[in-house]
Amino acid sequence: MISPLPLVMIAAAIGAALLGFAFVRSGVRWFLGLGLGAVAGGAGSMLFMIPLDYCTFAAERKPYEAEFGFLLVGIGMAVVLIPVGWISLRLLRGESLMSTASQPTQGTFRHWWIAIPLLAPTITILVLFLYYPSIETVRLSAHLSRLGAKREAFVCTTNYTRLVENSDYLDVVIRTMYISAAIVVLSMVLSLLIATMAYLPIRGASIYRTLLIWPNAISPAVAGLIFLLIFNPLGGIIDHVLGSAFRLGWTNDPKVAPWTIIIASVWKSMGYNILFYIAGLQNVPKDLIEAGAIDGAGLIRRFTHIVLPMLSPITFFLIITNMTYAFFDTYATIDYLTPGGGPLESTNTMMYQVAQLGVFGERADLGKAAAQSIVLFVMVIGMTIVSFRTGGRQVTYGA
Predict the structure, then answer these.
(1) What is the spatial distance between Cα 274 and Cα 271, in angstroms, rounded to a whole number?
(2) What's the CATH architecture for 161-394?
C-alpha cells in the first residue's frame, strides 16, 4: 500500500520543478513558479485519486493496477499544471488571456455580466446533456452497476484493468481500427474522385450532384436496411444478379461481413464528403490551373500539385469528421446488417460492444460499458490530436 501523503509530496516537488523552470526561462520570478507548481502538482495528483480513494495502490491490487494509478496521477498533474502555468505566465508578463487581434471593436457588451443571461440557455443544455452525462459515465466506470439494479458496488479500476487481461477485447479494438480505417480511406478517395467528375461542366449537373449528395440525409439505420435488401443471402439483389456461382455470403461469411459494413458505411458518408469537395473545387483558382497547363503540366500533375494542396483544409476536416463517424455512428448499420455483430463477432466493433454490453445485453453491465466507452473516447481523442499534430501541419491555407 502506497501512502497518499508521500505521493502528493512527490507530485508537488515535480510540479514545483517544472513551473519553476518554466518561470526561469520566461524571465519571471522563479519563486512564484515554485509555489504555484507545488500547489498545482499536489492538487493535480489528487484529481483522480480522491474519487478513487487511492484504491489502485492498495496491497491486494495487481502491479499493473498500481501502474495505472501512477498514470492517472500524471494525467491529473498535467490537467492542472498546464493551464495554471499558462495563465499565470501571461498574467505576470502583463499579457491578456485572449488575443486582442481576434476581439471585435464593435458590438461588444458594456458589462461582462450581461452575457451571462444570454448564455444561460446554452450553458444549461450543455450541463444537462453533455457535462453531467460525461461525469456520470466516469463515475459508473468505477462501479459494478447493472441496468435497473437499485444498488451499486465500488470496484475501483477493475472495469479498466480487466480489459488488459481480455484478449477478446484486443481483437475488438483491432477490428474496429481496420474497419474504421477502411471506411475513412475509401469514402475519402471515392468522394474526391466522384466530386471531381461531378464538378465537370455537363448538362444536368445540378440534378446529378443532388442525387449524389442525398444519401447524407439518410440515417445509418436506414442505410443498414437498404443494404440488407441488397446483400441479404436469402433474397438479396446482388446474389440474384450475380447468380449462385458468385455468391459470397455477404452477411454470413466472417471474412466478407466486415466489408459489407464498410461498403454500406462508405455509401452513407460519401454524400457528405462530395458536398464539401464540390464546394472546395469551386474555390480553386482557375488561373493557377491554366498557368500549370501553360507550363506544360499534365492533367494528373495539375491535380496533384495544384488542386489537392488547395483542397487540403477540406480534406483534413473530412478526415476528422469521417473518423468520428466510423468509430461512433456505425452501430445502427451493423445492428441491421449483421445483428449481434456476427457472424462469429466479425463485425463487433468497440461502439457496438458498448451498446450491447451496457443496454441490450442479458445482464446489462453499465460499469463495464462506461469503462469501454471512455477507452473508445480517449482513443479517438488521441488519434484526433495526432492528426492535428501531423496532418494539420501539411494543410495549405490560401493560394
Answers:
(1) 5
(2) Orthogonal Bundle (1.10)
Q: Out of 203-217, 244-258, 259-273, 293-307, give the one with best mean pLDDT.
A: 259-273
Residue with the larger pLDDT of the pair 162 and 148 = 162
Cell for 158?
Answer: 477493475
Q: Which of 277, 278, 307 is nearest to 292 (CA)?
A: 307
Flag whether pLDDT at 396 surpasses 70.
Answer: no
Q: What is the mean pLDDT of residues 20-32?
A: 84
Q: What is the pLDDT of residues 65-115, one digit of tens each?
A: 888 889 999 999 999 999 999 998 888 877 766 655 555 555 566 777 788
Our CA angle for 102, 108, 112, nearest 5°, is 105
Q: How many angstroms separate the Cα of 51 from the Cα of each of 28, 199, 365?
A: 35, 56, 21
Judge whether 20 and 30 are in contact, CB under 8 Å: yes
Amino acid of residue 125: I
- Please state the domain extents for the chain: 1-94, 161-394
Closest to 172 (Cα-Cα) out of 253, 268, 258: 258
